Amino acid sequence: MENEPDHENVEQSLCAKTSEDELNKSFNLEASLSKFSCIDLEKELEFKNDLIDDKEFDIPQVDTPPTLESILNETDDEDESFVLEDPTLLNIDTIDSHSYDTSSVASSDSGDRTNLKRKKKLPDSFSLHGSVMRHSLLKGISAQIVSAADKVDAGLPTAIAVSSLIAVGTSHGLALIFDQNQALRLCLGSTSVGGQYGAISALSINNDCSRLLCGFAKGQITMWDLASGKLLRSITDAHPPGTAILHIKFTDDPTLAICNDSGGSVFELTFKRVMGVRTCESRCLFSGSKGEVCCIEPLHSKPELKDHPITQFSLLAMASLTKILVIGLKPSLKVWMTFPYGRMDPSSVPLLAWHFVAVQNYVNPMLAFCRGDVVHFLLVKRDESGAIHVTKQKHLHLYYDLINFTWINSRTVVLLDSVEKLHVIDRQTQEELETVEISEVQLVYNSSHFKSLATGGNVSQALALVGEKACYQSISSYGGQIFYLGTKSVYVMMLRSWRERVDHLLKQDCLTEALALAWSFHEGKAKAVVGLSGDASKRKAIVADRMVEILFHYADRALKKCPDQGKIQVMEQHFQVVLMCWENRLYDAMIYVYNRGMNEFISPMEKLFRVIAPPLNAGRTLTDEQVVMGNKLLVYISCCLAGRAYPLGDIPEDLVPLVKNQVFEFLIRLHSAEASPEEEIYPYIRTLLHFDTREFLNVLALTFEDFKNDKQAVEYQQRIVDILLKVMVENSDFTPSQVGCLFTFLARQLAKPDNTLFVNRTLFDQVLEFLCSPDDDSRHSERQQVLLELLQAGGIVQFEESRLIRMAEKAEFYQICEFMYEREHQYDKIIDCYLRDPLREEEVFNYIHNILSIPGHSAEEKQSVWQKAMDHIEELVSLKPCKAAELVATHFSGHIETVIKKLQNQVLLFKFLRSLLDPREGIHINQELLQISPSITEQFIELLCQFNPTQVIETLQVLECYRLEETIQITQKYQLHEVTAYLLEKKGDIHGAFLIMLERLQSKLREITHQGENTKEDPSLKDVEDTMVETIALCQRNSHNLNQQQREALWFPLLEAMMAPQKLSSSAIPHLHSEALKSLTMQVLNSMAAFIALPSILQRILQDPVYGKGKLGEIQGLILGMLDTFNYEQTLLETTTSLLNQDLHWSLCNLRASVTRGLNPKQDYCSICLQQYKRRQEMADEIIVFSCGHLYHSFCLQNKECTMEIEGQTRWTCYKCSSSNKVGKLSENSSEIKKGRITPSQVKMSPSYHQSKGDPTAKKGTSEPVLDPQQIQAFDQLCRLYRGSSRLALLTELSQNRSSESYRPFSGSQSAPAFNSIFQNENFQLQLIPPPVTED
User: RING-type domain location, by residue (predicted)?
Assistant: First the structure.
């Protein structure tokens, strides 16, 4: 998993992960380039094991070899715990720079340092990896640096910084800014400023390339705008005077930078802009008195990693002369790691470098720090608790001292030693990939700044000694590129792509090494791979193509070295090349050697035929490799016949006719060489036909295209066609599809205008018989498709059309019939083809629709299709009623009655009408345009009553066009009482509908009454309940629109019907039914209580002659149930009233407290004129204080138009709050007041407090306590504490009713304005919870 920065000059896809213990194969460069034979290559491959030195690679002896599972489970890097003992906040004054209390990474590597250096160099990496780095001179920038020194006295270059721009600082204080095209965009500063500040000693560009920081040798710092070239800041007091700036670095935060001076101190620079003034605040992070810091490096994250959890800490690494520190600048200053050095060469340079790497599927930053010849790697992680942990990775021991360390990507690092040699190292395997000498760069060193010569050289000897080799500001990396600043030039280094590395070896004639390097790319073992993307198989395919090109190049060179080209058969070495290619399945290379070495084109065909012919003749399935060989053979034959070389290039023009003739002669051979007696004639054509008939015929078709006036080629063409017919027609081992391919091929050839072929027409008749009259019915669709392709290719001219149609109908080839009928425009007959074809019968609807709707067909053709569809309407409906209905509605809308008459089958008619009329069937029909008569709808309803009576009501609810009287007669005819009742209710005859439902209920009750004792699961009781529920629903739906007498005419008969069975003796009714009937009767009473007054119900019950004679026992339960309901509702009403009173009391208390609360001004001056209110006391001006704390003079508020007159009183609004967009509620209230939408009762609470004119201190001058908009906002928030319905409206309602004698918000005797009471709103919901407790 790699995370490389994008850059236009570097391909960023990296190779697959390699194992750390993998040893790359190496090849001997000393071998003579003239020995490029197969034997030499094999010897070098066998010699690879001799290059491994056990001592050098330090391979230990093991008792038990590791298992595959243990190897696969090894982690990518060492994950050794690294304990840090200084997690406290950074306090520079209390940190002892010479303390070694923290655990040290170096402590685990301590020992005799002479044993740690590897005195022996690695094997020659060029033979393993080729040239890994590409370095080039930036000529444009280099020339302009020299020109600036000569023309404007810019001085020598001293520092470089690279982002999307390139900045170069000079010794005379100028900063030259170049773009990516090496064009000079800006020249910042001047030589006069340089004379004052000294040379530029450090540069830094921020992330978005908009700002440049320049540090100077005399200690000043400047900030420039890179867009406009303006000087934004000149900082002279950020650090102690008399010290040079060694480093200055932007962090990821554009307002934060870090600088390091020659006194060894580190400062944090914070850039701010207040009231348009740019400032810089400096904070000391590390004092040089505690140990001099000579290298700093903040952690920079790429844009795609900006949300990484580690970036919030803004980590900074610092290297002093004695130890390494990693601190976090955010959210507060904290030390996360201290690491003391071991014994070091005092002249060695401390180096730091960050990079994000992927370890164990997680991306985290890794810090590389080194001094001398040891590089340590620390992985920084953040755990779930937010703490940072540092894990030690494997360190790197070198045999040279370093002066620079640069990450080029997460796997590859570039090191610069003290003798100016670049070393490219693979981090994981620690293998040196390449060494590059860069002394020609003439690298710029920063020694003078470390010695602070510009300020008098007041630095320590230790720092001056380190500065001898310091080149921090001369090397900068960006986007996978490294820039080196020389005294007169700028060089750039980058990784070569994998293809460049191979090509570089080829240009130097290192063919063996190039092939070995390509093989390492193919196997995923190469290092520092750039430019290979995609999955493993895709990468292998790309590399394999390049390897084949190398092999061709290798073979071409080898063949050119032959003593006599074209006599390859006498040279044993080159036969071995062919043998090697064949054994290693390099068929393309084998064909290439035959063609180029001896101009032999037939031998490769014979070798490939000998592989694929035996299994095909035996009827066996070919293996994948044999299929590949067969495909190569077809392509090779096609190339030869077309005059092209295989796989690339062209055959020499003088050989093209010869090669074509040889290939044709080869194909038409009667027998193969070394043929057995059992071999059939024409084996090569037969084999190719069996392998892939269609592709072989395509090859021949492409070849025949090139035949124009070549008489011999035309003869070959006719000869091959005769052989094809003889082989395929006279043998039964070819499938109908293969035979059809042949005759389709022939039909296309015969249809050409310049055709010279002759084919006996009787052969086409034989093919027609073969396809239409098989011995069995197998492969019916295949035979039909073959014949259809033959006809479409022009073969129809070879047949008699009437005979063809007869045979197609006999064979049930309906697609053939359709093809023929369409040629004759007999579209009506095509409908029969669709209806008879079971595979395509449902497509007939789309066909008819297209013919009737798409223009281009004559009226007679459309009429014939229309008539045919009408004649087969019954078949169409039985096939798919929905599609048939849609077709009729679209094209037969005026003949629906005719269609209905044709549908004699009642079931089909029912399905058709349901699809046509019922919108739930999903048919998109415009019923208004259809204009169906009511009689058709009623006919459908009658069919629905017959075939699906349970769906009648649901269907009637969605139907529109039917007559009620006729429909009622239909439902009465089929005794569908519920449907009849529904229709009567729709008609308006509520009483008639009720009588029908009542009759059904009484009949169900009679069934129960005359029934003996049954089981507990009695279905008749369920019927009673369902019927009663439907009857109650009928009464409830219509009671709202009836008067009291009409309501009683509905409900009392229903109650009487339910109570009638209970009047009988208890012995006649089972006990179970008695309890159930009482429950149902109670349900009726509860339902009718909403529409009939309770006294009327009781009076009606008591007037019953049965109960009037003292038999009240049967209705005792009913009356007690009604009383219980009354008690429940009364208790609920009292509880609700009590809660509302408590709610009102609590709300008024809070409102009173907020109104009487004193005001506390935030300041003693007017918020508009900014003058203290006491100074204007002599003026006749009021002082106005708002609850928000703002204070104003009334004169100032009037000038700002913050007053308004409502009902003759002055109302004030706070100027600051009303003009701010942050207080949305206040703005709404203010706008409402200005627009006059607030009622007078609300306005009484809205004005602000006024102070008296005479006492400006704290006295309130109004006689009535009122609310300003801020208080209104607070009150609204108070009201919203209850999530109920309109709390303010509720309180208003209660306050209006408080004046009445009896507090009854639910009383029906309220005055007219109370008719729209909040309590009568259907959305009113009472939340029975105690009021919330709020803190004042």
Answer: 1166-1218
How many CB atoms neighbour CB 338 within 10 A?
22
Alpha helices in 880-963 (DSSP H): 881-891, 896-902, 906-917, 927-930, 934-947, 952-958
What's CA 1042's distance to the chain center, in Å? 62
Report how far residue 936's alpha carbon sits from residue 901's, in angstroms, rounded to the nearest whole number: 11
Burial class (CB in 10 A: 0-12, 13-18, 19+), 293: buried
pLDDT digits (tens, 9 = 90+) for 907-951: 888 888 888 888 777 666 666 666 788 888 888 888 888 888 888
∠ CA 18-21-26, nearest 5°, is 85
Helix ranges (DSSP H) in 467-571: 498-507, 511-523, 536-560
Place of tokens 């029908």: 996
User: Cβ neighbours of residue 1109 under 8 Å, at least 6 residues apart?
Assistant: none
Q: Residue 272 gets which letter from DSSP?
A: E
Whole-angstrom distance, CA of residue 93 vs CA of residue 287: 8
H, E, C per residue of 988-1026: CCHHHHHHHHHHHHHHHHHHHHCCCCCCCCCHHHHHHHH
The letter for the amino acid at 423 is H
HSE-CB at 572 with a 13 A cutoff on CA atoms is 1
Q: What confidence tens digit (pLDDT) does each residue in 238-297 have?
A: 888 888 899 999 998 889 999 999 888 999 999 998 888 888 989 998 888 878 898 999
Q: d(Cα 1054, Cα 316) in Å, to the nearest integer?
A: 89
User: Cβ distance 194 to 202 under 8 Å?
Assistant: no
Q: pLDDT value at position 1072?
A: 58
Lowest-pLDDT range of 9-18, 157-166, 187-196: 9-18
Any residues with CB less than 8 A from the CB of 956 and at least 6 apart, and which?
941, 962, 967, 979, 982, 983
Please give the helix or strand (H or E) that residue 1256 lies within, else none: none
CA distances, 318 to each of 68, 84, 116, 353, 468 (Å): 43, 16, 26, 10, 20
Say what the pTM is: 0.45
25 Cβ neighbours under 8 A, 6+ residues apart:
45, 48, 128, 516, 519, 520
Q: Say if residues 378 and 352 touch (Cβ distance below 8 Å).
A: no
CA dihedral in degrees (818, 821, 826, 827; nearest 10)?
A: 20
With bands split at pLDDT 50, 70 and 90, how would you rate the model's confidence at 588?
A: confident
pLDDT greater at residue 42 or residue 422: 422
Relative orientation angle of helices 761-772 and 780-792, to the nearest 10 degrees = 150
Query: Edge-to-edge strands of the sheet including 334-340?
Result: 293-298, 315-320, 323-328, 334-340
Tokens read off for 313: 């800490």
Rounded to whole angstroms, the Cα distance separating 702 from 687 reads: 19
Please compute the mean of the pLDDT values over residues 113-128 and round it to a whole number. Answer: 46
Q: Which residues pair with 515 in a beta bridge?
A: none
Looking at every residue in the chain, the average pLDDT score rounds to 75
User: Can you count the helices (H) and strands (E) in the chain?
Assistant: 48, 34
- Chain segment 1106-1164, per-residue pLDDT in tens: 555 555 555 666 677 777 777 888 888 999 999 999 999 999 998 888 878 788 887 88
Contact 282, 269 (CB under 8 A): yes
Which amino acid would we find at residue 1314? Answer: A
* pLDDT exceeds 90 at position 205: yes
859 class by beta-carbon count within 10 Å (0-12 exposed, 13-18 middle, 19+ buried): exposed
Crossing angle between the packed helical segments 881-891 and 906-917, to the nearest 10 degrees: 60
> In this structure, what token pair is assigned to residue 157?
């270059």
* pLDDT tens sequence across 598-640: 778 888 888 888 888 888 888 888 888 888 888 988 898 888 8
- Report angle CA 621, 622, 628 to the nearest 5 degrees: 155
Position 1311 pLDDT exceeds 60: no
- Count the Cβ atoms, other than its own, within 10 Å of residue 982: 22
